[in-house]
Amino acid sequence: MAPPPSAVEDSSKTGDILKMHSSDGHFHRQKSTFRSLITPSSIPNSPFPAARDRYVLYINLGCPWAHRASIMRSFKHLEPFIQLVTMDYELGPEGWFFSGRDGTDAKDPLYGYTKIKDLYLHADPEYEARYTVPFIWDKEKETIVNNESSEIIRMFESAFDEFLPEAEREEAKGENGLYPEHLKKEIDEFNGLVYDKINNGVYKTGFAATQEAYESHVVPLFEALDRVEKHLSEKGHHPYLFGKSITEADVRLYTTLIRFDAAYFTLFKCNMRMIRDESHYPKLHWWLRNLYWKHEEFRSTTYFEQFKKGYMKAAKTNIVPVGPVPHILPLDS
Q: How far apart are CA 139 and CA 53, in angstroms?
C-alpha cells in the first residue's frame, strides 16, 4: 500500500528532478500550491478580477495538464485577453526552461527569465516544491494566481465571459455549455474517474519503479478505458462524452488520449492496447479523431513530435519513437 502523500519524499528537493517515484516505487502527484481564482469583474473586492491583458498563461507544448488550459483558452476565444507564454517541452535540471526551440519562447517576455523556477521564486521566495505548468500569472500583482489545471480551465470557461459576444457566454449556451447545470454531477463523477485512472493513471504506470507498482496501475488504467468506451455507447453520449455539445470532460480526457498511442503506449509502458485498436475501442477512437480533425482548437494545440521528445527525457531514454505512423488516423479511416 502506498504511503500518505505527506510521507512521500519530494524529489524536487533531492537534486534529481527526473526522479518521479517515492521509496515505495509509486508515483505520487504533488498538490498544487497556488489556488486563487479569477472572478468576473462585477464581483466586489475580488483580488483577481477578470480584465483585459492582465493575466498570462504559461505552458509547455508537451504537458497534457497545460494542454487542457491551452485548448480552453482557444475554445473560449480568449486569445485577445490572456497572453500565452510557451516554455520548452523538455524538463531540465531545474525544471522547465525557455529555449526558443520549435516555436517556443526564447525567454520570459515579462522579466527576461530563462527558467520557470525564477517565476515561482519571484512569486514566493520561499517556495520549495516542484515548478509546474500550467499556471496563470498576474502582471499587476506580479504573482502566480493559480497552478491547478482543473481550476484554470473552470476560470476560462466563464470568468472572462463579460468580454465575449453574448452568444458565446456560458449563460447564453444553457444546456449546451461546457459545464451545464443539469450535467454537473455526472461530469464531476466522470472527471473523477478519468483523473485518477487515466489522466494520472498513465503517469502512475509510466513512473512506477517496481513490478508491483506498475501492475497495480496499468490494469486499472485499461479497465477505466473500457468504462469510457461503454459510456460512449450509451444513449445521450454521442458525438461527445455528454451528448451533442463539447463539455470540459471532453477537454480533460482528450489531452491524455491524444498522447496515448504516440507516447504512453511505448515510453510509459501503457501497452496492453492502443486507442486505435478498434476491436476494443471503436467509439473511443472515433471520439478522439472527431475532436482532432473537426475542431481547430484541439488540432492546432496538439504537437506530436514535441510531446514525444518531452516524454523521452522523462522516461530517461535518448530514443524518440518513430511511430505510430500516422500519429492519428483520418476520421474516415
A: 8
| Distance, CA of 202 to CA of 158 (rounded, Å) | 30
Task: Name the amino acid, one letter, at 159.
Answer: A
95 within 8 A of 113, measured Cβ to Cβ: no
Q: pLDDT band at 21, cuts 50/70/90?
A: low
Strand locations in 21-76, DSSP E? 55-60
Q: Check residue 159 and report its DSSP letter.
A: T
In one-letter notation, the amino acid at residue 260 is F
CB neighbour burial string for 111-126, b if at least 16 within 10 angstroms, e if fewer: eebbbbbbbbebbeee
Say what percent of the chain tops pLDDT 90: 86
What average pLDDT does the chain have? Answer: 92
Q: What is the reported pLDDT for 8? A: 36
Query: H or E element: which one contains 293?
Result: helix 282-294
Q: Which helix (H) or strand (E) holds 143?
A: strand 143-146
63 classed as catalytic: yes
Specify which residues 55 forms β-bridges with: 82, 138
Residue type for position 63: C
Residue 68's alpha-carbon distances to 61, 148, 250, 325, in angstroms, are: 11, 11, 10, 24
Count, in order, helices (H) and strands (E) of the chain. Answer: 12, 6
Q: What is the pLDDT of residue 26?
A: 77
Contacts of 227 (CB under 8 A, 6+ apart): 193
User: Among the options 63, 69, 225, 267, which is catalytic?
Assistant: 63
